[in-house]
Automatic annotation (TrEMBL):
<keyword id="KW-0812">Transmembrane</keyword>
<feature type="transmembrane region" description="Helical">
    <location>
        <begin position="61"/>
        <end position="81"/>
    </location>
</feature>
<feature type="transmembrane region" description="Helical">
    <location>
        <begin position="93"/>
        <end position="114"/>
    </location>
</feature>
<dbReference type="InterPro" id="IPR002666">
    <property type="entry name" value="Folate_carrier"/>
</dbReference>
<dbReference type="Pfam" id="PF01770">
    <property type="entry name" value="Folate_carrier"/>
</dbReference>
<feature type="transmembrane region" description="Helical">
    <location>
        <begin position="6"/>
        <end position="26"/>
    </location>
</feature>
<protein>
    <submittedName>
        <fullName>Thiamine transporter 2</fullName>
    </submittedName>
</protein>
<dbReference type="GO" id="GO:0015234">
    <property type="term" value="F:thiamine transmembrane transporter activity"/>
</dbReference>
<keyword id="KW-1133">Transmembrane helix</keyword>
<feature type="region of interest" description="Disordered">
    <location>
        <begin position="169"/>
        <end position="198"/>
    </location>
</feature>
<dbReference type="GO" id="GO:0005886">
    <property type="term" value="C:plasma membrane"/>
</dbReference>
<feature type="transmembrane region" description="Helical">
    <location>
        <begin position="120"/>
        <end position="142"/>
    </location>
</feature>
<feature type="transmembrane region" description="Helical">
    <location>
        <begin position="33"/>
        <end position="55"/>
    </location>
</feature>
<dbReference type="InterPro" id="IPR036259">
    <property type="entry name" value="MFS_trans_sf"/>
</dbReference>
<keyword id="KW-0472">Membrane</keyword>
<feature type="transmembrane region" description="Helical">
    <location>
        <begin position="224"/>
        <end position="242"/>
    </location>
</feature>
<comment type="similarity">
    <text>Belongs to the reduced folate carrier (RFC) transporter (TC 2.A.48) family.</text>
</comment>
Amino acid sequence: VTNQIFPVWTYSYLALLFPVFLITDYMRYKPILLLQGISFIITWLLLLFAQGVLAMQMVEFFYGMATATEVAYYAYIYSVISTDHYQRVTSYCRSITLVAATVAAVLGQLLVSLADVSYFHLNAITLASVSLAFVCSLFLPMPQKSMFFHRKGVSQTLPGPDKAVAAVGADGPSNCREDEGSVSAERAPTPTQQADDAKPQNHAFGVLVQLSKDLRDCYSSRKLLYWSLWWALATAGFNQVLNYVQVLWDFRAPSHSSAVYNGAVEAIATF
């Protein structure tokens, strides 16, 4: 489990993150949201009905894809609202995500401890939940613009540095790129007009140049740089502890012979 299964998620996530980020922008977010839902569904179908090391490695791969495509969830929101609403919508999205995770962990713990529900049925409940989320995502409107490939030359009032930092706080360093990219995409229309007149290959090159410029602008701000480093290190450390403690827990108190309180711990940590 530790050497052959868990690392698949880590390296799959790492390998997919950057290409998924670019494809997300090119496909205008919604298709990647659908891909995330399909990845979650496949993950839990394998958990329910597949067995063996290879099957569990496939679980980790599709879970890595699901977590890598999570960037589309937040990027989509910023593509359909104005910059004036970034802070409010960021707080809504982050709050509902944390509240839902806390409630789910509490519910799982209560079902295991009080109702003696099996893990199979817990996974079946999760499969139903992610399937419902996938169905809901089918009805989301398709964005008409994105940060790089489908930019609109519409100038808007830009948020100040403090608002940018607050909006970036949604979900890690990826949102730094998302938020700063969105701001850069809505500046003067001249780069957009030039890109529209260029050939497709020149446009693709221009997108990469624009991406590099936006990254430079993003991390030239000390606030954003310090915040991004803090979030990256904190997230990496938290994930390391989370993976390690599950293995340690099952070693010290095997789930087949000891009471299980993982759900309660997850709920407290999330809260």
